Amino acid sequence: MSDTARKDKTIRRRRRVKKLRLFVRYLVLTLVGLTMILPFLWMLGTSLKTREAAVEIPPTWVPQRKEVWADIDGRKVSVRVLMRTATVRRLDTGETVDVLEESLHDLRPWWKTWRDEIPGANIPIDGSLRDHERDVPVEVVKRTARVRVIGEDADTVHVEPPVGSELARLRAENPERWKNILDLPGQNVTTESRVSLEWTNYPKTWNKLPFDRAYINTIILAVTITFGQVFTSSLAAFAFARLRFPGRDKLFFGYLATMMIPGAVTLIPVYVLFMKMPEWLNWIFGTTWFTRDIYFLSRYYVGRLVGGNSYFALIAPGLFSAYGTFLLRQFFMGLPQELEDAARIDGCGNLRIWWHVTLPLSKVALATLATFTFMGAWKAFMWPLLIINREEMLPLQVLLQRFRGQHGSEYTLLMAGSIIVLVPLLIVFLLGQRYFVKGIQLGGVKG
User: Fold this and answer.
1) Which of 57, 282, 356, 404 has its CA 20 to 30 A from that of 88?
2) Which of 257, 221, 251, 258 is nearest to 236 (CA)?
3) What span, in angstroms and rounded, lies between the C-alpha atoms of 258 and 265?
4) Left if phi > 0, otherwise alpha if psi is -120 to 50, otherwise beta: which for 247?
5) CA distances from 178 to 29, 40, 86, 150 (A)
6) C-alpha 22 chain-centroid distance
7) In this structure, are residues 241 and 333 in contact, taking their beta carbons and an 8 Å threshold?
8) Are 76 and 69 within 8 A, CB to CB?
9) H/E element holding 80?
10) Residue 384: Cβ within 10 Å count
11) SS3 state at 304
12) pLDDT: is 158 or 423 the higher one?
């Protein structure tokens, strides 16, 4: 083989290896992306399911509506199955037993079919029965379904049960409760599944709880905290990055050390402080104004001025951030000092330099911090749960918990409410993601 042919072969092999590596990378990234998006897709699918389909086992990804029909005197009638039973004959003793169909299961290996014959017995087997911790093979003699007639046919279908049957006795004892319940042969009951998107879950969710007021509360909370935190963090960051004063670096590191304190440690002291604040202010000013409930237009409850059930208590703890100060300080330190020197020569003071020079050059960092702050404030849960006990003041995240009860959860409404709450976050993220990319690009440039 010539050198040219050998080189061509090596180049082709390297190209194949490169393409294979590229394929593997894209495959891994796709799988990682799916793990991130699958929970959202599951939440979206559950929000469009019926209440029964949301809790069925095994679960399904595609929202489906199962309709059960029964053949009653030649009519196709909509029913709800209450119980399925089977009359089975035990193959070991020949005894006939009535059991629930759920108690039957298949013992055969996966390669065997449902109607396979037991070797040596030559008897078709429909399943097995658990009896005293052992499985007994059985033959199904008859299947029966107890159903309730529903819908428009509930008042038109009347089939009397056989005299002396259990259903006849139950209907005689309580005719009103058992009048639409029938026992039918199992083959007369069929189940049809079709794709069904229950869009009505969304208006039902919106109307069941005061989502309109919760949206207003959450918007006020998130927007105020976002502007307040960007404002205070930018001022503090400018002071730590550009101003020179004794103990500046030590004060900054002490400020930064507060990030290492878990929020649960300060939760109770801050709660006690805000709950006692109205009483202290009333005592200082000699009034009862700070403990009064305030109504807008004498109709809409807007909480108190301070303390529990107030917008002040919701917003004030989130107006300051050591992380935001650190993020902006690092960005401010990378800005050209010459621009600030030129502004000082023109007669600008520190505040004018901060407003006219530093902030316009830091739009990327400010937008990034604003996006993170808005998303964090929108998802706030623990602090509003503690400080607010009036439904009119609850934000969205706390309001969603009303769909979870001690004796059950309305999963379809809970998932629909989660989608309603998530939509603004998706919009903010889509609008702010270009600033993330710009921040990465600027952070990778060295001048």
Assistant:
1) 57
2) 251
3) 11
4) left
5) 58, 43, 21, 13
6) 34
7) yes
8) yes
9) strand 75-90
10) 20
11) strand
12) 423
The residue whose two tokens read 């009519």 is 75
- pLDDT: which is higher, 149 or 129: 149
What tens digit of pLDDT does each residue of 1-56 get?
A: 577 777 777 888 888 888 899 999 999 988 888 888 888 888 999 999 988 788 87
Chain-centroid distance of CA 416 in Å reads 9
Using only the alpha carbons of the chain, give its radius of gyration. 34
Tokens of 319: 């107006």
What values do phi and psi take at 302, rounded to 5? -120, 20
Structural domain spans, the chain: 3-54, 64-195, 210-403
According to the CATH classification, is domain 210-403 in 1.10.3720.10?
Answer: yes
With CA atoms as reference, report the closest residue to 327 among 364, 352, 294, 297.
364
Residue 51 near residue 171 (C-beta atoms within 8 A): no
State the pTM of this model: 0.74
Please confirm whether the linkage preceding 175 is cis (ω < 30° from 0). Answer: no
Question: Which position has the higher pLDDT, 396 or 59?
Answer: 396
Under a CB-based contact definition with an 8 Å cutoff, are residues 87 and 105 in contact? Answer: no
What are the structure tokens assigned to 125, written together?
């087997």
The first and second tokens of residue 60, run together, are: 């399904």
Is the C-alpha dihedral spanning 108, 110, 112, 113 positive or negative? positive
**In b/e form, how buried is each residue of 116-148, taking b as 16+ CB within 10 angstroms?**
eeeeeeeeebbbbbeeeeeebbbbbeebbbbbe
Residue 178 in contact with residue 168, Cβ under 8 Å?
Answer: no
Which one, of 161, 205, 202, 206, lies nearest residue 184 by Cα? 161
* Region of residue 94 (left: phi > 0; alpha: psi -120 to 50; beta: else): left
Please tell me the number of Cα atoms within 13 Å of 136 on its side-chain side.
20
SS3 at position 235:
helix
Residue burial 85-103, b: 16+ Cβ < 10 Å; e: rest: bbebbbbeeeeeeebebee
> What's the whole-number average pLDDT of the chain?
84
For residue 373, what are its two tokens? 């702050």
* Helices within 286-316 (DSSP H only): 311-315
Calpha distance 88→95 (Å, rounded): 8
Q: Which of 442, 446, 256 is nearest to 363 (CA)?
A: 442
What is d(CA 405, CA 422) in angstroms, rounded to the nearest whole number? Answer: 22
